[in-house]
Structure formats: C-alpha cells, structure tokens
Design a protein that fits this description.
Elements (H helix, E strand, L loop, with lengths): L4 H19 L2 H14 L5 H13 L12 H20 L2
Length: 91
Amino acid sequence: MMPDKTFLLRIGADVLLLISIFFLPWWISLGLAAIFVFYFAWYYEILCAGFFIDSLYGSGIETFHGFVFVATLFGILLLLISLYVKSRIRI
C-alpha cells in the first residue's frame, strides 16, 4: 500500500530542512521552516528543528540574558502565529 502523497511531501520537507540546517546558512533554513509551517497543517517538526539548531550552533546571547534556545523559541512563536493566521483565513 502506497503512503499518502502529503505524507511523502512532508517527509521530503523534513529531509530538506535537515539538510539545510547542516549545509546552508541559517537564514535559508529559517525561510524554509517558515514556508513549511504555513504550508503544512501542524508542522510541529519546526520545534525539533529549532532544538536541533540550538543544540548544534546555539550559544548564550547577551540580548536574551544568556538564553540559549533562541531558535526553539522562534519555532514555537512561528508555529503559534501560523495556527492563528490559518484559523482566521481558512486555508
């Protein structure tokens, strides 16, 4: 039995995001994550990607009083904003 097309598309997006975290600049990974979070319903993988980015590249930032998990926090905020916007515009 073949998996659903959206399931395969989501797996492909996850692999693309993971590859971009390793090999591309952070702003490209951020752009891909933003696109995926608005394209897919409940793209919770952004939380895992944010934690992964923080684990690999994160360091305390003085602006955030030494808070290390900035990408994870951004992923949570982006997910919540996308859920709010999607509920308002009905896509």
